[in-house]
Amino acid sequence: MPIIEVNHLTKEYQLGHISSIKDTALNTLRRLTFRPTQQREAFKALDDINFHIEEGEVVGIIGHNGAGKSTLLKHLAHITKPTKGKVIVRGSVAPLIEVGAGVNPELTGRENIFLNGAILGIPKKIIKSKLDEIIEFSELEKFIDTPVKRYSSGMAVKLGFSIATSVDADILIVDEVLAVGDLAFQRKCFDRMEDLIKRQGKTVLLVSHNIRQVERMCNRVMLLNKGEIIQDGDSHATCDQFYQLSNKTISDQKKNSSARVISSGEVQNIKVDILDDNDQPTDSITEGGTLKIRVQFGLNKALINPEFHIGTHTTDFIYLTGESTAVLGQSQNYPSGSHEIQHHIPTYPLVPGTYGIRVAVIDQSGRVLYHGESLLFFNVLAKSKDTPLQDELRLIAVPVEWKLKDNNQKKNHI
Amino acid sequence: MLSFAKNLYTYRELIAALAWKNIVVRYKQAYLGILWAVLKPVMLMLIFTLVRSFVGIETGEVPYPILTFAALLPWIFFQESASEGINSVTSNSSLIKKIYFPREVFPLTAMVTKLVELAISFLILAGLMVYYKMMPTVFSLWVPAIILYTMIVALTISFFGAALNVYYRDVAQALPVALSLLMYGSPVIYPLSLVHQKLIIEQAAGIWSHDLYTLYTLNPMTGIIDSFQNVLLKGIPPDFDTLYPGAILTLAILPFSYLFFKRAENWFADVI
User: Fold this and answer.
1) Which of A63, A295, B62, B146 is the one with CA 20 to 30 A from A183?
2) What value of ipTM does the predicted structure carry?
3) Which fold has domain A251-381?
4) pLDDT score for B73
5) Which chain A residue has its CA at the smallest distance from B14's CA?
6) What chain A residue is nearest to B106 in terms of C-alpha separation?
7) Which chain A residues are Cβ-neighbours of B170 within 8 angstroms?
8) Highest mean pLDDT range out of A288-292, B49-53, B129-133, B151-155?
9) Chain B residues within 8 A of A98 when measuring between CB atoms
10) Where exactly are the structural domains of chain A?
11) Which one of A107, A119, A123 has the shortest CB-CB distance to B99?
């Protein structure tokens, strides 16, 4: 029997402010006299969701902001009730939804451990026996008898996480809590979560925007979009689809917003494409594949010996590659009219993800005629489903050669 | 109602922890600490005693200060637990949005918090009784039952008010006003014997006198305060004639109040 069963779950919220007493009274009157009531616009946060989760499964839930992830978790944690449909949960639920919801700033760390323990439903006896372990995990031995209001925000979150993960429940619901504290503590949280998942065999639902983390920890991922499950299954495939979806959203946003472009007006109608092996425009390449960037542009006056600079960057504008034609030392003239240049990277070394393209045109005297970032976004897709899940441990993928103990040379391209 | 009792037992640790938090947080940085809890009844007692020296209120053989203090004890407990109870759901919105447990825990916690403050006030009452050389009688054993009844009355108001307050914050504004008016409709400043004297014996309101008296005793606090004074100060059993109209009214409303709360509970997290 599945431990979680969700059948035709629909959740509607009414848009706008809560109705005034006058409207409520009028609507009640209308209802009593069997006349139609005045309805406000409804918003479907979840739309006919169906899934089953078996005991011991580790399920990730991903999707954009507002896709319905947290609403779904709230239903599983009984915090809110569905408008339509049914949610059956067979077992105790420990919601780690935003750890530290119950942390009170006036109380000391130790007092908060007891308070939060009670809120999470941990019996006092068990908290007492686990007290030392919790304090040790939180790394707050020195400050445990200081009121939490004197803590730094990181310390408060550490405390919250330490308490929350000591819950003993059948189902753990985790909403964006792994991104707490400094790097060392994050590592510890990871290990604690993996311990809960792997060794204790708990059913875990994990919501995160850190897709790599989800891909790594979960054996099944659900992708939510606008209140619907658009994919449910293998974590790798689902995460891949999410990357594509993200890319689409980012490029949609780009169309609407002004691109980050500086232009003197001499270079016009810049169009950037990436090309597949048949030189057809595409939106993604495979990890370790060739990246062909084609830039088409128009000139309204002739350019003598310009410098072209083409590079890629992450969605948060970390410049990754960037090469200039200046190093070629060639002198070339471009008459006014339209032109096309191409920029090939035989092995694009970045791990799966979404990246942007930037282009700059500089004239021979060093004046920047054009500089544009995020002109196009493209995806790097994972090579295959069984690629080792280690994306959060690296940024670039390079060919390596292993020399192992028995002198058998083994080549492993990751 | 059965599930309510079960929840009460299951979540007793949570209620205790939350009530403890309320008290600790409220008095943590105050030098006098929880002693502040008795400030209100003591001040009111002093003011009423002062006023009474001008207007003259007949109290029989019991000294006025202790009589009015014994009235203020259950009254303030009732008033504050009802007000806190009504605010208890909205003031815990962060918890309501994050985690589930039966929401009646919040009004109950408000009540338990006030119970602790009531216990402190009892020490003052004991001090007054020593001062006036009054010995508690065997009828003092009624006190827990009277307090329990007061809690039920406060809960009846809290459940309905707390649920409604989630939707309309007017409730939390209006209720303190209504309750402070109700104080004048309860035998706090004056003893019940005075009302009884006027309406039943002197028939001051003509043919309406008896009905008016019944209306007066429909207020559960009338019976509670009178019984409280009876068992502690006068050493006589509670007067059930004064108790039952209010008790019937309370028990008639309580199930509806609770059901209303449980129904509204499903949408707390969405609306709050």
Assistant:
1) A63
2) 0.82
3) Coagulation Factor XIII; Chain A, domain 1 (2.70.50)
4) 92
5) A118
6) A119
7) 21
8) B151-155
9) 98
10) 4-248, 251-381
11) A119
